[in-house]
Each structure stands twice: as C-alpha cells, then as structure tokens.
Specification:
The structure holds two protein chains of two kinds. Chain A is α+β, with helices and mostly antiparallel strands. In chain A, 35% of the residues lie in helices and 16% in strands. Chain A folds into two domains: 75 residues, Roll (Ubiquitin-like (UB roll)); 73 residues, DNA polymerase, domain 1, CATH 1.10.150. A five-stranded mixed β-sheet of chain A has the order 2-1-5-3-4, with helices on one face. In chain A, helix 2 packs across helix 5. Chain B is of the alpha+beta class. Chain B is built from 20 helices and 37 strands. A seven-stranded mixed β-sheet of chain B has the order 3-7-1-16-13-14-15, sandwiched between helices. Classes of the chains: A alpha+beta, B alpha+beta. The interface between A and B is large, with 57 and 57 residues.
C-alpha cells in the first residue's frame, strides 16, 4: 500500500513520517513513535483509553487516522510533565489515589487537562460529565473526581500566585 | 507512647498508613509496561479467524488467498497443531478445550485458525482472506434444553464417557452433578417447617471486561531452546507449569512474565487458545509473536462469569428463625468446562451459601451442563462462585422476611451467627474464623437513620401522585476468601499456598519477591508496608517485585482476594524469620542474651535500657560484615504460606433507590457500605478498592448482560452495548468499617477487594425489589435496566405517563 507523508507536532516536537493512509493515529503513536501512553481498550471510541489532545480538543486516537492529523499539534500523556515536573493533573491523580491498574489513566489525564482548560472551576457534576467519555473499571470515579478537583485548585492557585 | 516513638513509627509508613502508591509514577507519565507496549526485535503479529456460527461442522479451510497477502507468513489450523497434540488442551476444571476448532465449532467466535504476519495490519488482512466452509448444526443455548432427552449432542469427543472429572455424567451434555451439605437433615427441616419459601433466581451471564484485553508476546529462542512469554496473567507460575506440560519444554526453560496488567477481575486467570497459538507460532517461526485480542473478541470468547440458574428454598418458624436451606442450581458452563476453581470444587465455594446466618440444616446441588456458548465461569471479582452464593442467600432472606411481614434488618439480626459463636462451623462444613455482625448492622442502621427511611417510604407509598417509588436494599454478607488450605484447595494438583522471598541488603534496604501479581491492587505499596511494620525498615526503601517466574518464588497468583490472606501472610512469616535472625545478631552485638532484648518499632534494645540498642540498619550491616559465630552471613528468608483456613470478611450494605415511575430509571440516592476486612493495611487503598468493587457491582446489577439469540449469536459484545458505567451514572459511595481481625492470619488481615462486588449486587436487587414489594413482588432478575423496570411498573399499574 502506498504511503503518505505526514507532518505533525507531537508534544512540541515536529515529526515527519510516511504512513499507510489506513494507519490509525493510536498505532502511529504507539508503534511508529514508541509513545505507548495512549492505550487501546475498545476500538469503538467508547473507553477513552486512547485519548489524546489534537489542536485543543480531546480526541480518541483509536478512531482517527494519522493522515488526518497533517499539520496538527498533538499532546499526549508523555507531554504533560514539563522539565521533569509533574503537571497539576498528574499530581492530583497521585495525591488522591485516582488510579489503580493505570490503563485508563493516560487518557483520563489528557482529558482532564483539556476539561480544566475549558472549565477551570468545574462542579462535581461538570467533572463527571466532562470525563464521561473515559471509562475506568477500577476506581469507581470517586477519587478521579477528587483528583480533578485537586488539579483545578492547584491550577487556580498557580494562576493567581 | 511518647512522641519520638510515634515519629519513628510514622517514618516507617507501615501497616495502617494511607501511603501513596509506588506504582503511580510510571502510570501517570505514560510509562507503564503493559503487554501491548512490549516490542521485541523481529517481532511478528498474530490474529485469529473465528467462527460466525455457534455450532457447525468445519467442511474445509482454505488458506491460499490469505497466504498470498503481502506480509502474511503462516496460517495455522487444528490440522497443523494435531501432530504436536496441541489442537486440544486441558482446562483447569478437568475437561479439555479446543485450541483451534477440530472438525467442529462449539460457539460463536470460537478460534478456528490463526494468521501470522509481519504487521498487525497484514495479519488482519490475512484473517479476512481465510475461507472456512461450515455445515450448520442445531444450536443449544438454553441450559435446560441441553438436558432434554433428544437434545443435540454438543461434545462428540466425550460420547460414551459416563464419568467426568467430577463424577457421573447422566446425559451427553452433562458435565457434573455436585452436592454439599446434608440432604436428609435439610429435607427433615422442610418437612417439619412452619413456613417455607421458594424462589427462582437467575444470575445472568456477564463478563469481567477489564479495560485492557488479554494478550501475549511469545518469544522462543531456537538457539538456547528457551521460551519467554509476556502474558496478561493473574497466575504466571501456573501458566508456566501448564506451558511446560503442554510443550514438553522443561519448566526451568520457560519464563512467563506478567507485565503491568490493565485490570483482571478474573478474566486473566485462564489459559486461552491465543496464548497457545502464539507460543506454537513462535516456536515454528523462530520469531517473537504478539497476539492482542480486541474488545469484541474479549467479550465473546474469553472467560465469562456466572450464568447460574438457581432455585432457593428456606424453611423457618413463624417468628422468623431459619431452620433449613435447600438450593438447586443449573450451571451453564458453555462449550468446555473451563471454570477456574480449585480442582475439587466444580462449583467453587458456592456452598458458602448459608451466608452470615446460623442455619442448622442445609443442602445444595449444582449441575453443570454444556451449551453452545463460550467457555468460562470465572470468579468476576469474587472468590469462586461466592457472588452467586451471597446473591442466593441474601435474596432468600429478603423473600422470607416478606412472607413473614418482618423487617429485613430484624430477620437478619434474628438469624445472624452471634459473635460468641465464632469460630463457627456452618452446615456446609466451613469454619467461619471470626465476625461481629450485630455490631456492624446496628452501626449502619444508625448511620442512615433506617427508621426515618422506612417512614419516608411509607409516606411515598401513601401518596398516589409520588413521581418515584422508593426502595431500600439491605445486605449482610460474609465472603470466603484466601484460597486456600492446600489440603482442600489445589489448581492442577498444586496446593494453593503463596510465597514471599525477602532479602535485606547490607545498607538496610530490602527487596521482596512474591508469587502473586498486582492488577491495580497496589501490591508494591501495601506489601512493603507489612515488611516495614514487621522489620522496622522504612517502606520507602523496600522494593516489591512480582510477575516474573524467573525471579519470583512459586505462587498461585492473584484472584479470589487471596493476595493479602495468603501472600500477605507469607510476607509476615518471611519477615519473622528475618526478625528471629536479626535478634540473634543484635544479642551478639550488644553482648547480652536474646531473652534480655525487646523489640521496639525499628530496633532491638536491652530491656529497660533505652540507650542500649541496635537498629535494623545496624543489624543489616552486621549480617554481612561480621555475623556472630555460628550464624551464616546474610539476612534473607523465603516463606511458603499454606493457610490453615480461609478468611471470612463481611460487610453490611444499604442502598436507597428512587425509581422514576415514568421512565423506569433507577437512581441510587444513597449507598452505604460498611466493610470488615480485619486489620487494615492501607486505608486509602482499601477505600479505592471498595469504590471500584461497588461500581462493578452496580454495573452487574443494573446493566451487564451477555445475551444470545436462538442461533447462538452473541448480542452486545462491544462497549456499544455491554454496560460499563461512566462517571455520570456511577453513584456516590459512602464507606465505613469495623475491624474484626482474623484470628489465624499472622497480621489479622482478611482481604477486601472483592467484598464490595459480592455484597453490592444483591443490595441493588434488594432495593429494586423493595420498591415493588408492597405489590407482592418478591424478586426481579438482573439486570435492572430502565426498560425492564418500566415493564415492571406497567405490570403493576404503577407507571406514570
């Protein structure tokens, strides 16, 4: 199958690769770029384990083609920490026990990152609605909600500091 | 205790501390190492051709078109595995299961052929190109139909076999008939009973559905003859033994590694055809082979749970004292008996079904049958059919209460095993180690203002315009976990002990290796806490490793809430061996007798002399530097712990639901869960496990179902249809606890992660039925979806438009 050149910025780094047009973004990230944070849990865009951020939107990379991302700016879980310092959302999940097996966590973190950009001070109902595209089988979400609240608070404190 | 002592103790972060998890750093940075993250040089990919039919003869398999596809390396069928005698494999339940369908398929989505290719995409292309001709056969989906005299024979390979692994087979589709308890005593209780109740209860077929599917990377080294397989297994050592037995490769040359596991919940205990095929393919091709199933394959073919058709009966006095219990179960095991239970128990520990109650006479019969469905019958976040048992007894006690017009809490108090009766031997022969049910129940009833709730419900019922029906569910369950004593529990003949090896380094840090494997339970965190308290070494410098059979001591793995009851005990015992040696070293260093020493948090000190002591750090150095005469150098220990008994955690759960009379939608207004798991190692992790278990219980009760049409087509095998709750519908959980330590466990711990699943499911049913009980409804089968509830509302004229 003939390949097509794609040029994408991933976690601030420019990537140029030739891919089969049918290559799913999640496979491109995981297999071509060794960014294995995004996981595959369902292939039908229900579970959200593959969530990445494309041009400021949460996207399920298991139902998105790599070639659709030409010229895009992508953020994955690997890009959340800056200079070895955890982001507020990562810290929140750690402090509030917002993860167990960790399989949903990368998608959940990337989604939370975007949610808090969209709504910096969400209510519990807004958090639950905001992460409803990401399934977790372990935590029952209660501590994930706390983790998001922790991150929201921390981000606001940093913004006003 | 004065404050420096407290500080020293706190610095250890030992038992009882809500220590943050060691596992998290890698997971929150996308650096977990799950099986699909593993990439080996020269690796190829495998995909599976599956049957579209539930029961059919295979007439012909044509591989040619598939082999023409660029990148496709091989296509294997049963005929290719036959010379290796690997086209069938033994199951954990004493049956055999087809690895690749041999002449006939027995369920839809059964494995028929595998395609190995250079890339994942080429393997998928190859799979589409394999052509299989089938001749359809009559399908049996209903387990009752399977036992009709003229039912089609499903397992032709067993024709003429009148004895199965668990006794006589009375019908070609029979697997076993298993009994426990005293039938004569139970029958006598019923013959003399003042009151008898009987109810049919279906525990439908569901699936554990961890977020990560199953898979493996098999890598055979043709030069060395070694086989390494990375595999999503909850029991890597057992897998290694089975792989060695099947392949003929000496066990010492087989290495199974369970990497990070994205949830198991019982789905990752068994050995699946995909694993066997990937291993064979790697041996044939001399290259690493990766196989990762997709979600539809996971829900359709890897182990389901439950599918128990139960009939319960209680005999009682008119004032509500239970005299007898009788249970009859028809168990649908699917095409092969691949339940993952201890060998001697084809229905697992189902005979814990007398629950938390002092029932003098009890008997149960479980009959297992074959149908054209996927094999399985695993413990979905529970201990070997305990979920089914608890559902049965808790539903039956409610039914009896209704019949006698007694309150659910009153009938339970009347029949509870009393605190002073422990250790208590049940009519089924289990010795309950400890419990205090009355105290726990009162605590919950007070916390939720039970009387107030009942008053509110009465007011709602009196109001014909009420938009909702209110239901109160109550469950007072006892689990049985920590399988198990090897005199009665084994898997393939291997006793269900577990193990721990601890090495203390010269500088006082430690590494512990375990026979279990975490799938999110946080073993790296909590196991270290046990060692910290036992040995006075800060948990921060204790590394815990599991899952690699090359380095970890042999253990039976993590399922059935056995990690803390069995492996947790092994840790304490290994630590105590080290402690004993450390004491000898300390006595020598302090030039006193061992009897002159006392242990204090992190050190041995001379009795009554605070200034004369040796810390574990001092002792560790001395063990390697200059051990006392007569003692060998080093400071390490291994312990294989064979538990003397199971442990019996319990809980009291109460739910309040509001059912919308227009839509049938059930809102969980309140869910109060009190758990008693004995000694609490890490309260933060316990809470997290309980939240997760309750949520899985909510999923099972309210929506999960693997259903089939008459042709055996599985309906709802993707996340489009199979219910996994999102954050929106998941209720808020309130948790509470009492602490009744296990008297036989070295640190008094009982295990916790499965109780909330086991206990919550009947609580939801109890609440839903309670809402309708004033209409004489005694039971409603799961799942309690809005549509089903709406139909129930309609049936009783309760629906609003």
């Amino acid at each position: 199958m003939s390949k097509k050149l794609v040029s994408i910025s991933i976690n601030g780094k420019k990537v140029e690769e030739a891919v089969e047009p049918r290559t799913l973004l999640v496979h491109f990230l995981r297999e071509n770029l060794n960014l294995t944070g995004a996981h595959i849990g369902c292939e039908t865009s229900h579970c959200g384990a593959c969530t990445v951020d494309i041009d400021g939107q949460s996207v399920k990379s298991c139902t998105h083609l790599a070639v659709q991302c030409e010229g895009s700016d992508i953020l994955t879980v690997e890009g959340l920490a800056k200079n070895g310092v955890l982001s507020a959302v990562q810290e929140g999940f750690y402090q509030e026990h917002g993860l167990q097996c960790g399989f949903c966590t990368p998608g959940m973190l990337v989604r939370t990152y975007r949610l808090l950009q969209e709504n910096p001070n969400p209510t519990e109902a807004e958090i639950r609605e905001g992460i409803s595209g990401n399934l977790c089988r372990c935590t029952g979400y209660q501590n994930i909600v706390k983790a998001v609240q922790y991150a929201a608070k921390k981000l606001q404190e940093t913004a006003t500091a | 205790m004065n404050s420096p002592l407290k500080e020293r103790e706190a610095a250890l972060m030992g038992i009882g501390e809500s220590r943050l998890r060691k596992e998290d750093a890698r997971f929150i940075q996308g650096k977990g190492n799950y099986v699909d993250d593993i990439k080996l040089p020269n690796m190829v990919y495998m995909d599976i051709v599956r049957s579209p039919l539930a029961h059919a003869r295979i007439k012909k398999i044509n591989k040619e078109d598939a082999l023409k596809i660029p990148g496709v390396l091989a296509v294997l069928t049963a005929d290719d595995l036959r010379p290796l005698k690997l086209h069938w494999m033994p199951t954990l339940a004493g049956d055999v299961a087809a690895v690749l369908a041999d002449e006939k398929v027995h369920f839809q989505m059964q494995e028929v052929a595998v395609v190995i290719a250079e890339t994942r995409y080429a393997a998928a292309d190859g799979k589409e190109a394999v052509q299989v001709e089938y001749e359809e056969l009559p399908v049996v989906i209903n387990p009752f139909d399977a036992l009709l005299p003229d039912a089609p024979i499903l397992r032709e390979d067993l024709v003429g076999k009148t004895e199965g692994a668990h006794g006589a087979r009375h019908h070609p589709n029979d697997i076993f008939t298993w009994q426990a308890g005293d039938q004569a005593a139970a029958d006598a209780a019923f013959a003399n009973a003042q009151v008898v109740v009987k109810e049919d209860l279906l525990y439908p077929r569901v699936h554990p559905c961890p977020l990560e599917t199953c898979g493996c990377v098999a890598s055979f080294d043709p030069i060395k003859g070694d086989l390494t397989t990375y595999l999503t297994s909850q029991a890597p050592h057992v897998v290694r033994t089975v792989v060695s037995m099947l392949s003929g490769i000496p066990e010492s040359k087989v290495r199974i590694v369970s990497p990070d596991i994205g949830g198991g919940f019982g789905n990752k205990v068994g050995i699946y055809p995909g694993y066997v095929c990937a291993i064979v393919a790697s041996i044939v091709l001399g290259r690493p082979v990766k196989w990762i199933e997709d979600r539809i394959e996971n829900l359709s073919s890897t182990a389901f749970a439950r599918d128990y058709h139960m009939t319960g009966e209680l005999a009682a006095t008119t004032d509500g004292k239970i005299q007898g219990l009788r249970v009859n179960v028809l168990a649908d095991h699917g095409a092969f008996d691949a339940c993952a239970d201890p060998t001697k128990f084809p229905a697992g520990l189902f005979h814990i079904c007398s629950g938390s109650y002092d029932i003098p006479a009890a008997h149960c019969t479980v009959r297992g049958v074959y149908t054209n469905k996927a094999p399985g019958g695993v413990a979905y976040r529970c201990s070997f059919r305990v979920t089914e048992a608890v559902y049965l007894i808790e539903r039956m006690v409610d039914v009896l209460a209704q019949k006698l017009n007694m309150d659910k809490s009153e009938i339970r108090k009347k029949n509870f095993i009393r605190k002073e009766q422990f250790p208590y031997t049940s009519a089924f022969g289990f010795e309950y180690d400890s419990g205090d049910y009355h105290t726990a129940l009162d605590k919950v009833l007070d916390a939720v203002d039970y009387k107030g709730l009942r008053a509110e419900q009465a007011a709602k019922r009196a109001d014909p315009n009420s938009k909702t029906l209110m239901g109160i569910g109550l469950v007072t369950f006892t689990e049985i976990v920590g399988a198990g004593p090897s005199k009665i529990c084994d898997i393939l003949g291997i006793g269900m002990f577990d193990s721990c090896e601890i090495r203390i380094d010269p500088t006082g840090s430690a590494i512990a290796r375990m026979g279990t494997i975490s799938q999110g339970q946080g073993h790296q965190t909590t196991y270290a806490q046990i060692i910290a308290t036992e040995l006075g070494i800060p948990s921060e410098v204790i590394r815990v490793e599991e899952g690699d059979t090359d380095t970890a001591p042999y253990g039976l793995g993590t399922y059935g809430s056995r990690s803390t009851p069995v492996a947790g005990a092994a840790i304490a015992m290994a630590a105590r061996k080290i402690h004993a040696k450390a004491k000898k070293i300390a006595a020598s260093l302090l030039e006193v007798g061992e009897n002159d020493l006392e242990w204090e948090i992190d050190r041995f000190k001379v009795k009554g002399m605070d200034g004369k002591f040796k810390t574990m750090k001092d002792i560790s150095w001395a063990a390697y530097h200059q051990p006392p005469e007569g003692l060998e150098p080093g400071l390490e220990a291994v312990h294989y712990y064979d538990p003397p008994n199971f442990t019996y955690p319990f809980g009291i759960y109460l739910a309040v639901v509001d059912i919308d009379r227009a839509t049938g939608e059930t809102k969980v207004r309140r869910f109060y869960a009190l758990d008693d798991c004995g000694t609490r190692i890490n309260p933060m992790i316990i809470e997290g496990q309980i939240h997760g278990g309750l949520t899985e219980g909510y999923a099972v009760a309210m929506g999960q179902l693997l259903s089939f049409d008459a042709q055996g087509n599985i309906q709802g095998n993707s996340l489009m249809d199979y219910f996994l709750p999102t954050a929106v519908e998941t209720p808020h959980w309130e948790t509470d606890h009492t602490v009744t330590p296990s008297p036989h466990h070295p640190i008094g711990a009982k295990g916790v992660a499965e109780s909330p699943h086991v206990g919550s499911i009947p609580t939801f049913t109890s609440a839903v039925v309670d809402a309708f009980s004033f209409k004489g409804v005694t039971h409603i089968d799961m799942p309690h979806t809005s549509y089903r509830i709406w139909k129930e509302l309609k049936k009783h004229g309760l629906n609003l438009n």
